Predict the structure.
Amino acid sequence: MKRQTRLKHLLGTLVLLILAYTGNSQDLIKFLKTQPEIVTIDSIEGNSFFKQTYVLKIRQPIDYKDTTNGFFLQRVFLADKHPASPVVLITEGYAADYASKPKYINELTTMLDANQVCVEHRYFGESIPDSLDWQFLTVENAANDHHRIIELFNKYYQAKWLNTGISKGGQTALAHRAFFPDDVSATVAYVAPLNFGVEDGRHELFLKEVGTSECRFQIEKFQREILKRRDQMRPLLKKYAAARAYQFPITLDEVLDYIVLEFPFAFWQWGYDCSKIPDSNSDDQLLFEYLAKSSPPDYFSYEGSAKYRAFFYQAAHELGYYGYDTKPLDDLLSVKSAKGYLNQFMVPSATSVKYSDKTSRKVKAFLKDDAENIILIYGEIDPWTASSASVRKRGNNYKFVLKNGSHKTRIASFDEKTRQKIEKQINKMVKATP
């Protein structure tokens, strides 16, 4: 009897291997159609690197602790290379519209010659429940979304998985590993913060030291010049908003204050050139245009921030965020204090949000004590690096910080020697036999 059981097991394994190495598009579509969780399957044009690309809607519980709270459809982009190839899981932190573009491909996918699964985050894009109950927008529920998708596709793809994400997507990838350590073999998190407060506090200190003292002086000088010309800036801001049909939850004077306060963070985050900051002799229009380009007023408008409203809830509830140091500009600001701004006018209306660092502490503990095969990528001048995650040295974990790198830092941003080192480690993590 035992011999028959072993024989059946060997035959089953052989069948899986045959399917893996001989699978074609018909095999995949048949598989997709037999999965009850997959509600819709649409073929779309994908990168020529893949055999076929689909956009799927997968039925997911709104609340994994109590499924009587209903379900929602989560949008997932599946780009198929080969059933025996590794799978790169992109844990997007926001909407995933970019994954529908025909040329889209992740740098890790080409590196590993892999399949690619991009998951739109719950409550974003087309993955929004009909009944928008914010209490179920939790990091743990999102981690369960990804766990369930891996369980689903593990029935078809037989190789190892790697999860990855950028910024909030990187946070999502690390949290997924903390809740489900064995779901994937490796994680590459780009520019992912790990905050411990709605206004964490480390970012303001970072902005006092980043770059050169000359550049920081230029930034503050520019901020002050804008505020000194408040009477000239107000009509320009009003015209800007009218042209885009933007409305704000605060006054125009307060909007001006906040985009000026946001300016240093945005400047360093996106790696702007200090030599391009207009000097104090510039006319009003030039000063305003540079400010609006670097620190867009849209961010504080109802319309411009609509797509981030769910994120602001998460930041105020679990993920944390950053604050503003108003002291250098106190004599020119119209707001008495910027403290608590996120809860005051950024979170969804009619929500009562209380912050808890429980999730951040869970992720921190996992990275410190149990993490294996994790690579963290950061940019040196990116303010989010102030609250960057740390990972234990044991367990084949690495942290790379690109000199003068911004929030745009990727593996391709590094010099060839470092890039080869990172790629070698990733291949070792994902392509090595179990």
Q: What stands out?
A: The beta strands are 38-44, 52-61, 71-80, 87-91, 115-119, 161-166, 186-190, 374-379, 398-402. Residues 202-345 form one domain. The mean pLDDT is 94.
